[in-house]
Known about the structure:
By secondary structure, the protein is α/β, with parallel strands linked by helices. The chain folds into three domains: about 5-80, Rossmann fold, CATH 3.40.50; about 90-280, Rossmann fold (3-Layer(aba) Sandwich); about 290-395, GMP Synthetase, Chain A, domain 3. Helices cover about 40% and strands about 20% of the residues. A five-stranded parallel β-sheet has the order 7-6-5-8-9, sandwiched between helices. The protein has a four-stranded parallel β-sheet with strand order 2-1-3-4. Strands 10, 11, 12 and 13 form a four-stranded mixed β-sheet that branches. α4 (about 90-105) packs across α5 (about 120-130). It is globular and about 80 Å long. The chain starts with a strand and ends in a 13-residue tail after the last strand. Mean pLDDT is about 90; it is low at about 230-245.
Amino acid sequence: MHQVVAVYTNGEKPAHEVARFVRSLGIYSQVVFTEEALASLNARAVIVCDQTGSPRSSLPQIRVDGALAVDGQRVRDFLFDEVGLSASWTMNTFIEEGCERIREQVGNKRVLLGLSGGVDSSVAALLLHKAIGDQLVCVFVDHGLLRQGEAQMVEDLFRQHYKINLVTVDAQARFLDELKDVTDPETKRKIIGRLFVETFYDAGRSQGDIAFLAQGTIYADVIESENPAKAGELAIKSHHNVGGLPADLKWKLIEPLRELFKDEVRQLGRVLGLPSELLGRHPFPGPGLGVRCVGSVTKDRLDTLRQVDAIFIEEVRKAGLYDKVFQAIACLLPVKSVGIRDGQRSHQEVCTIRAVESVDAMHATFYPFDAALLKTISKRILDEVTSVSRVLYDISDKPPATIEWE
Length: 406
């Protein structure tokens, strides 16, 4: 079992930065907010990372008051020289220990996982499959709000390549029917979330005897939910991730990634063999294109948006900028603009393209694309997507704007 270092905080400062630094040294760390949590951790040392009083503990302690750029060497010397820890925590050891924990928890029972094709659920699927093989059942809900070719990619990769037991539910008609004439962003999110849960739940029940529900919860989610400084905060909008399974659900929860930060999830995915194209994908909201199709959601508008998005991302990749951009998105706006098609006036869709630089999605600045690249993207969209008459580039920073439009 790996050695553990506790990062002790009252939630006032971003302790995750300290925890990530310790992990980068090859030592597993965990953030704790109370002395009770510290006592239950079986830690070897404590790093106190804000002005809160030192915890009552006989463990070796060090306080980090400044930036890690200043205190980093002190922390290294403390952990390796004073405490005598070793750099033994790697993704390979995590896989070994994680598979062992999963097998002990699951036994010979079956596990259900909602597979979206995103990074977290994909990595969770491979880790669970490595641990328990065909005891894992993955459900992929195709709600019609996905990007171009996404549903086929998920099926080809996980069913054909990895031989995972994958159940695909075609729910496109159901989602479009309930979203008809709905334009309010929050109402759209709630409809999509409710339908996803209902569809996933029904598909899971149809698979027979299921004992566990797996989720792609990561460590940032855990810290946010436990951080006392975040208690009572109002959400700016409904969270991108869809949740809220029925209260009477009998499945027990299993979260194989809850110890890992996002970058560590990607590292794990690389070790497990996931392709870099999937691991490096930009964030994508749980409600999918439903919240990028601003205004009414129809099949025609979604098909238009898929074409616009595919061209935009293709050109960003061709320019060698995809991995330098935190997130690149395309949206349709709830207005139409006059244009000229085949020598005649037309009244067609207006799209906006957006790319931002960010570290944690809390703050973001628009990416300064070269004017020549913007011209190339605009020309391709207008030439190839005949239902669009105008292309805009969004230069709004967050805050005050958000990254997504809805």
